[in-house]
Design brief:
By secondary structure, the chain is an alpha/beta fold. The chain is about 40% helix and about 20% strand. The radius of gyration is 21 Å and the shape is globular. The protein binds flavin mononucleotide. The site of flavin mononucleotide has 24 residues, from strand 2, helix 3, helix 4 and strand 6.
Length: about 200
């Protein structure tokens, strides 16, 4: 009753109180200003010296760990033309695309990262760098004032040249420390990934 009366007043106490409450709620809100852009390929892959069939890609696993640790939106880079499920055929396709600096067409595009401060760019190591499809997406975005972190899953090459390659494309960004995750250990990497992600934002 008291609240209703005050709420009804133009400059009443309740009205003021309500405004303060809203502000506090906003201040306490966890604002997810992170986006995790990733490419990951299911199917045959090379894991610890043998070919395995992955139902979920290694990088996808890591991308989800980042989201779980620091929040944010996930954006999956998906090509219109799928790569071969066969590992060796895919190796050849990727080599040709790298040689040609191809920019494969994507199923959907992220048009803007204006709403985000921290951009995690995640992908598998393909011949030492990200799959060309990652660059198809990144080249469409304005990175001015953004913080970018590279994440690469790999079978021995670590981050390869991906940080150097990102720096050429993400103009105007500042770069956080990158993270290399051994692909075969992706499922066991949650604590390492979470600790790194929390330090990165
Ligand atoms: C086309 C292709 C190229 C690869 N090139 C490399 C490489 O140069 N260095 C490396 O350490 N691993 C390489 N790998 C292994 C992948 O980087 C590794 O398995 C990765 O974790 C796969 O991630 P994904 O399951 O998210 O696609 C390659 C794999 C594929 C399919």
């Amino acid at each position: 009753m008291c609240c209703k009366e005050n709420h009804g007043e133009k400059n009443g106490i309740w009205e003021k109180y309500e405004i303060i409450e809203q502000k506090n709620e906003k201040e306490n809100e966890i604002v997810a200003n992170n986006i995790i852009i990733y490419y990951s390929r299911k199917g045959e892959n090379y894991c610890n010296g043998s070919i395995k069939n992955l139902s979920k890609g290694n990088t996808e696993i890591v991308a989800e760990f980042i989201q779980k640790a620091v929040g944010g939106d996930l954006f999956e880079v998906e090509t219109v033309k799928e790569y071969a499920a066969d590992y060796y055929a895919c190796i050849d396709e990727a080599k040709n695309e790298l040689r040609e600096q191809a920019r494969p067409e994507l199923k959907k595009y992220l048009d803007s990262i204006a709403d985000y401060d921290n951009i995690f760019v995640c992908g598998p190591c393909w011949w030492g760098t990200f799959p060309m499809a990652v660059f198809t997406q990144l080249e469409r975005l304005d990175f001015t004032g953004k913080k970018v972190m590279a994440v690469m899953t790999h079978e021995g090459s670590g981050l390869g040249s991906c940080e150097r390659d990102l720096k050429k494309i993400c103009k105007g960004a500042v770069f956080g420390k990158g993270l290399a995750v051994h692909g075969a250990d992706a499922a066991k990497s949650e604590s390492t990934v979470a600790a790194w992600a929390k330090q990165s934002v």
